[in-house]
Amino acid sequence: MKKYTITALVANKSGVLTRVSGLFARRGFNIESLCVCTTEDEALSRMTIVLNGDEYTLAQMTKQLDKLIDVKKIAPAPEDDSVYRELLLVKVAAPAEKRSEIIEIKEVYKAKIVDLSPETLILELTGEPNKLDGFIRVIEPYGILEMARTGVTALSRGASCLNDRLDYNEQI
């Protein structure tokens, strides 16, 4: 199984997320990561969906998504032609005797301390998903108390844009 990333422009209205996620559920595909937000055009939202599967799975889900009326444009986001980013917040046990070690690790990964207490640190890290995975593995022995990840977001490299050739005269 391989991870595939799909980006889609969808109508920014109630129920669209439910229809898209329901499409995956009905076919038995698990969404590994989902990031949704409005775009520069408030009538549209951008979805970045990461799923595990093979090329057939990717082709099937792309075809099925394309059939939904609220999906305006869909495209794969291949690793070699896209920039991926994700945000991680992690609360780590940080007693005084271990705090300097944790801070050294934070500096290697270029993470930020966004909150601290006498017993804990909350660290923020942005980067490619594998960088975040590596950071988690290194920091885990210190005691991860809680963490949250945003999910992957992606843009294609170069001048091409997902909204190229989008028909703005069409009813959104």
Automatic annotation (TrEMBL):
InterPro entries: Acetalactate_synth_ssu (IPR004789), Acetolactate_synth/TF_NikR_C (IPR027271), Acetolactate_synth_ssu_C (IPR019455), ACT-like_dom_sf (IPR045865), ACT_dom (IPR002912), AHAS_ACT (IPR039557), AHAS_small-like_ACT (IPR054480). It holds the Pfam family ACT_AHAS_ss. Pathway: Amino-acid biosynthesis; L-valine biosynthesis; L-valine from pyruvate: step 1/4; Amino-acid biosynthesis; L-isoleucine biosynthesis; L-isoleucine from 2-oxobutanoate: step 1/4. It is an enzyme of class 2 (transferase). Its EC number is 2.2.1.6. The keyword Amino-acid biosynthesis applies. NCBIfam families: acolac_sm, PRK11895.1. This is Acetolactate synthase small subunit.
